[in-house]
Amino acid sequence: MDSSQTFSQSWRAGTTLRVGDQSREATLARLEALAHLLDSAFLIPGINRRVGLEAVIGLVPIVGDIAGMVISSYIVAEARRIGAPRWLIARMALNVAFDGAIGIVPLAGDLFDAAFKANRRNVRLLRRWMERNGGVRPNEIDGTAVRIDG
User: Fold this and answer.
1) Which residues partner with 49 through β-bridges?
2) What pLDDT does 126 receive?
3) Which domain of life is it from (predicted)?
4) What CA dihedral angle connects 18, 20, 22 and 23, to 10 degrees?
């Protein structure tokens, strides 16, 4: 596949990313897509609760929890690669460690893992830091809407 080809992400309408794009915005978009897949890709019918692949993988004792931590650590490594400060990397790593430590407990840990959503938390922390430091455009616009009747 040519690195200049594009593909559309179905998780967010209208978002198009270039394959191999290493910009901060492209990296953040990829991490947001990964966090969505890991933490909230599927809707459980009846209870209207979202879970992701990490919760499903975590059902396999020990090995699933370790695999989930390894995948979650990728988000932390990418944050470090794009220049996030040490305090942010430490906070993100603590989220992954806490999620993994509690996740090892059978059944209760799996329920906690489905609710805590460490990957979404970490990507949200990274996005806020990048928005404050000019690394990416804000996701939301601050201000007040005024209706103009013409």
Assistant:
1) 44
2) 96
3) Bacteria
4) -10
Q: Is residue 14, in this structure, part of any structural domain at all?
A: no
Averages of pLDDT over runs of 10 residues in the chain (150 residues) are 39 48 86 95 91 90 91 96 95 95 88 91 96 73 69
Question: In angstroms, rounded to a whole number, what is the distance separating the alpha carbons of residues 150 and 147?
Answer: 9
Domain span at residue 97?
22-132
**29 with 9: CB under 8 angstroms?**
yes
Q: Are 114 and 87 in contact (CB under 8 A)?
A: no
User: Cα–Cα distance between 96 and 86 in angstroms, integer?
Assistant: 15
Is 139 among the domain residues? Answer: no
Distance of CA 27 to the CA centre of its chain: 11
C-alpha 3/C-alpha 96 separation (Å) is 31
Token pair of 25 as six digits: 């915005």
Asked if the structure places residue 143 within a domain, the reply is no
Domain count of the fold of the chain: 1
Inter-CA distances, 137 with 22, 82, 88, 90, 97, Å: 16, 15, 19, 24, 30
Q: Quick one: tokens of 141?
A: 């616009």
